Amino acid sequence: MARVVPDKTAGESVGAQPDMFSPLPAGARAGVTHDNGTEFAHHERLRDGLGMATYFADPYSSRRRGSNENGNGMIRRYLPERCEIRMDMAKEVREIVDEADNRPMRVLGYRTPAEAFADELLELQDQQGCCTSK
After folding, report:
1. Is the full-model pTM beyond 0.70?
2. Phi and psi of 60, rounded to 5°?
3. d(Cα 12, Cα 3) in Å, to the nearest integer?
């Protein structure tokens, strides 16, 4: 579940993450990779609160974060870099996210990210169901 965070502060950003990750099955929240921004300074709250491994991208290594950079490029077609994103733009941002999540990708066998994620969740639920019934 996406959430608009009004302030790009460590407390606000990390405070929003448990709401996004906690509804997911444990297997879908094994780890998260953060950018190196100060908004993730309190990442240990997420790590300790949900038991997720937390990683950080190497500085100035965008080549190692290809899918992230690809997503940023798609978003910048609608919102140029340094564009101010205000709270009253939540609907517009949601539409951009929905379009990105529902765009077929070759790397996913021409499934959309939403379809691939739903398939992964079903697989995790099936694995948990078979293991808890024994």
Report:
1. no
2. 60, 30
3. 11
Q: Distance (Å, rounded) from C-alpha 60 to C-alpha 63?
A: 9
CA distance 23 to 85: 27
Instruction: Note the pLDDT tens digit of each residue in 28-81.
Output: 888 887 777 777 777 787 788 888 888 887 877 766 666 777 777 888 888 888
Helix, strand, coil percentages, rounded to 5, for the chain: 60, 5, 35
Q: Are 32 and 54 in contact (CB under 8 A)?
A: yes
How does pLDDT run across 79-124, given as a tens digit for each residue? 888 888 788 888 998 899 898 889 999 989 999 989 999 999 998 8
- Calculate the dihedral angle through the C-alpha atoms of 82, 93, 101, 18, rounding to the nearest 10 degrees: 90
3-state secondary structure of 77: coil
Distance from C-alpha of 14 to C-alpha of 73, rounded to nearest angstrom: 24
Q: Are 86 and 93 in contact (CB under 8 A)?
A: no
